[in-house]
Amino acid sequence: DLRSHNNMSPLDSSGSTAESYTSDTTLSAGSPTHQFSSSQELNDSEEESELITCFCMKPYAGRPMIECSECETWIHFSCAKIRKNNVPEVYTCQLCRDSKFTARKSNRVRTENNKFTT
Questions:
Q1: In degrees rounded to 5, what are phi and psi of residue 110?
Q2: Cα 42 to the center of its chain, rounded Å
Q3: Is the dihedral of CA 70, 72, 73, 78 positive or negative?
Q4: Which one, 2, 27, 53, 98, has the greatest CB density within 10 A?
Q5: Which residues does the UniProt record annotate as the domain Zinc finger PHD-type (predicted)?
């Protein structure tokens, strides 16, 4: 009866009812995230490619980048001296690596005769 009344299968290929599938797609198509015009989407992608995150102060511009696991800065492979065929799982940028060595571990001062004073 249901099939002849609506002239469609009550279940679509995903197993949900055809009515709920139609209403879900209608709702998602009308959601605010899908209301951009193509020119707005183009401008957004252009802005993303112009966004500067690397310390070289040059934009993304489609070049491959990697994120520092400590400061979360995105850095071009070329600036980080990383090759596409040798990308590390976890990367720490040079600035974060250097900052670990410049932090003082003690307030002791070395004297000329190599003895420590406090």
A1: -85, 135
A2: 19
A3: positive
A4: 53
A5: 53-97
